[in-house]
Automatic annotation (TrEMBL):
It holds the Pfam family Methyltransf_31. SUPFAM superfamilies: S-adenosyl-L-methionine-dependent methyltransferases. GO terms for biological process: methylation. This is Methyltransferase domain-containing protein. One of its GO terms (molecular function) is methyltransferase activity. Residues 36-144 form the Methyltransferase domain. It comes from the Bacteria. It comes from Mucilaginibacter ximonensis. The keyword Methyltransferase applies.
Length: 254
């Protein structure tokens, strides 16, 4: 498993699971009829393309990401859209003038930031007053695997939230970041996702890879890996596998 908790295949697979949540996030930008919208941490640019189709050619939709391979895929897929642009950049600093952007969306990005408040402040700087800001985040602490091995599960969750993910409790801190940056009209929603097969859990959440990496880094023993993952395989074979995780959506206005 790479240092990142994602690659292009992971993003494409998880997109199928999250399509309804993604589409709902686009609606916050429907009334924007000029100017520019940013998708920060855009990955391979699928959300950029979908938003660009919704808002029309008078609005430029800018995908920003630090991964040149992801951006190249986005440019290829968006070659027939005139209102799309992709920029290689970290989340801080952002090379946009103050109060120059009409809306901003970011999905599963805040969890990876070592200085999330600094990024929230930067977003507040570039947004025009009255502009919408939409965040989708994974609550890694909410990950639930239904087995009797709760002590091992706790070690897995601790590895994810305290070590693997830079900001593993980001989902629970979002409203604090927004308040500190001066955003108003903050709203918060929790969306649980339930998976009923081990295949889906491995495809959408990389469950086996996460447990393997937890063992490789010494947070659990090889025996504990076999016990936990063996219980998941047994549950799957018997038809009672269950796994859940929450995603949260925070919306606000500059």
């Amino acid at each position: 498993m790479s240092e990142k908790h994602y690659d292009i295949n992971y993003l494409q697979n998880s997109r199928r699971l999250l399509v309804n949540l993604k589409e709902a996030s686009y609606t916050y930008f429907e009334k924007i009829n000029s100017g520019a919208i940013i998708d920060l941490g855009c990955g391979a640019g699928k959300d950029v393309i979908e938003i660009a189709k919704i808002v029309g050619e008078n609005v430029k939709v800018i995908g920003v990401d630090h991964d040149p391979v992801m951006l190249e895929q986005g440019r290829t897929d968006a070659k027939n859209l005139n209102n799309v642009e992709f920029i290689l950049s970290e989340a801080y600093p952002l090379s946009f003038d103050s109060e120059s952007i009409d809306g901003l969306r970011t999905e599963r990005v805040i969890q990876h930031l070592k200085e999330p408040q600094r990024v929230a402040d930067e977003i507040a700087r570039i947004l025009k007053p009255g502009s919408p800001f939409v965040i989708i985040e994974t609550d890694w602490h909410s990950l639930a695997l239904y087995t009797p091995f709760m002590d091992i599960h706790k070690k897995l969750t601790a590895y994810l939230t305290d070590t693997k993910i830079n900001n593993g409790f980001a989902a629970r801190k979002l409203t604090h970041y927004l308040r500190q940056s001066g955003f108003k009209d903050i709203k918060f929603e929790i969306h649980p996702f339930i998976l009923t097969s081990l295949e889906d859990a491995n495809q959408y959440l990389w469950i086996e890879k996460m447990i393997q990496e937890t063992a490789e880094h010494g947070f659990i023993t090889p025996q504990e890996f076999e016990e936990l993952y063996g219980a998941l395989k047994e549950a799957d074979a018997a038809g009672y596998f269950a796994c859940s995780i929450n995603l949260v959506v925070a919306t606000c206005i500059k």
